[in-house]
Specification:
3 domains, TIM Barrel, 546 residues, binds 1-deoxynojirimycin, Oligo-1,6-glucosidase, domain 2, single chain, Immunoglobulin-like
């Protein structure tokens, strides 16, 4: 039985400041029609699960018309639902039902690039050099004899040159796959079109937008050469002439004015990979966006000192602009944190080895309690509440991540976190649907299912449910912009809190004795607390009422 929802005391317009937002990857969440692919109706049917889990909002990765060259981040029509996911009526029903359950819906907006199957690009290609439609993208003649060399030395984030040459001799820019041509945001028609797309979805009733590659739309004047650099990786933080240019902020100021015409409680979330958290804070100034993902936090190793440093710098960076910090451990682009923490540190966010699964899960559960105790908004990626590991042994011929193919299998393992999630112990695709699943689920996946974990004391699902219920009920959890650290704790451990609440974390591989802060509210692994001191087990986090 799910705990009753407690209405937050926060003003409704400020709901997002401490919201827990659940990311759904539509292909892999729930398949209502048995075609092996998740869909909007499947999500709609599972909304009560999300409400009972205790999240505030659902962010849907793209479900628009798309050839799926990059899992839907290649949009052919921004106002249409891809038939694989349903249609606009399904989207409408999903939004309405979510609202009836007190859940908000955030959709993904992909403004940096379209699909090469978008009408603008297809016509631009067909019309040939000199077509005014080519000005809406970055078409340029090449360098060298016969223009046979790309216009500059930029590389695609997915590997290989960031330019592709057409048979007519011109080159076009694509920071990601060749099927994802970059739009030219200097062109007024591009800006107009996206303002219209925003209104389309706002009129449909969505509560906000997650902005894909929010740091990418404006390129440095003249598209200057980089002059050699390491290949930029997904979520990379190097300064680049095609990322984090100051001009991008003009776009967001204009967008914010549109949002402000609607109810005051709708939000923008930036996916902005910037060199520093201070640069990230620029995106969430009061007249721009509301939140930005904290990829510095996502990339942190399981180490108390490093976690504390990133928590402090994140809070420090956000405070001057008045935005809440955000916290995220997993998403559809990185190896799930249960597997990242199962491996040695320093392997990055795309890992192909399962590591020590028990250790990874233990740390992942502790990391979740740490994250949910911090002030600000937290993001949960579908399946992490089941403690799912990444699927590291997918056969190469079933992989779909475009970067896997562009990097000749040296990179691009994002399919491993996109395997459809298990709902039931048995059955075709463990309850994902009646027709198998577009990526194979590992044997034994059923033991991790929602069915197998529901009502089981100590299961990861029940840990999340309880944590989210306590977070709602405990005054001040998630609020504010500060944490107060207690420095009298052993190396490798953390203790922080606020009035009435404390969180202790042990990132070392062994138990440590620390002073008992109060009464245990919740622990990521079993603890026995009595007396002035208690033993905090290895890789464990505990919430306390003090
Ligand atoms: C970031 C998205 O999260 C990722 O999945 C996608 O491949 C790139 N942006 C390009 O759109």
């Amino acid at each position: 039985m799910a705990p009753a929802r407690v209405t937050s005391t926060r003003e409704a317009a400020d709901w997002w400041r401490d919201a827990v937002i659940y990311q759904v990857y539509p292909r892999s969440f729930a398949d209502s029609n048995g075609d092996g692919t998740g869909d909007l109706e499947g999500i709609r049917q599972r909304l009560p699960y999300l409400r009972d889990l205790g999240v505030d909002a659902v962010w849907l990765s793209p479900f628009y018309a798309s050839p799926q060259a990059d899992g839907g981040y290649d949009v052919a029509d921004y106002r249409a639902v891809d038939p694989m996911f349903g249609n606009l009526l399904d989207a409408d029903a999903l939004i309405r039902d979510a609202h009836a359950l007190d859940l908000r819906i955030i959709v993904d907006l992909v403004p940096n690039h379209s699909s090469d199957q978008h009408e603008w690009f297809r016509r631009a290609v067909a019309e040939g050099p000199g077509s005014p439609l080519r000005e809406r993208y970055h078409f340029h003649p090449g360098k060298g004899e016969d223009g046979g060399l790309p216009p500059n030395d930029w590389e695609s984030i997915f590997g290989g040159p960031a330019w592709t040459r057409l048979p007519d001799g011109e080159w076009y820019l694509h920071l990601f796959a060749p099927e994802q041509p970059d739009l030219n945001w200097e062109h007024p028609a591009v800006a107009d079109e996206f303002r219209s797309i925003l209104r389309f979805w706002l009129d449909m009733g969505v509560d906000g937008f997650r902005i894909d590659v929010a740091h990418g739309m404006v390129k440095a004047e003249g598209l200057p050469d980089l002059g050699g650099s390491d290949q930029l990786k997904l979520l990379g933080t190097d300064a680049m002439p095609f990322f984090d240019q100051d001009g991008v902020h003009d776009i967001y100021r204009a967008w914010r004015l549109i949002l402000n015409e609607y109810d005051r409680d709708r939000i923008f979330v930036a996916e902005a990979w910037t060199p520093t958290v201070e640069r990230t804070a620029n995106y969430v100034r009061p007249d721009e966006l509301h939140q930005a993902f904290n990829f510095q936090y996502l990339g942190a190793p399981w180490d108390a000192a490093e976690l504390r440093a990133i928590i402090d710098s994140s809070l420090d960076a956000m405070r001057p602009v008045g935005a809440p910090a955000t916290w995220v451990l997993s998403n559809h682009d990185v190896t799930r944190h249960a597997t990242r923490y199962a491996n040695p540190p320093g392997l990055g966010t795309q890992i192909r080895t399962p590591g020590d699964r028990a250790l990874g899960l233990r740390r992942a559960r502790a990391a979740t309690l740490l994250m949910l105790a911090l002030p600000g908004s937290a993001y949960i990626y579908q399946g992490e509440e089941l403690g799912l590991p990444d699927v590291t042994d997918l056969p190469d011929d079933l992989r779909q991540d475009p970067s896997f193919f562009r990097a000749q299998g040296q990179d691009g393992f994002r399919d491993g976190c996109r395997v459809p999630i298990p709902w039931t112990r048995e059955g075709s695709s463990y309850g994902f649907g009646d027709g198998g699943s577009w990526l194979p689920q590992p044997a034994g996946w059923g033991e991790l299912s929602v069915e197998a974990q529901t009502g089981v004391a100590g299961s990861t699902l029940e840990l999340y449910r309880t944590a989210l219920a306590v977070r709602r009920e405990q005054p001040g959890l998630g609020d504010g912009t500060d944490v107060v650290w207690h420095d009298e704790v052993p190396t490798g451990t953390l203790r922080f809190g606020r009035s009435g609440f404390a969180c202790t974390v042990n990132t070392t591989g062994s138990a440590v004795r620390i002073a008992t802060p109060g009464r245990v509210l919740l622990a990521s692994s079993p603890v026995t607390a009595g007396g002035d001191e208690f033993e905090l087990p290895a890789d464990t986090a505990v919430w306390w009422e003090v």
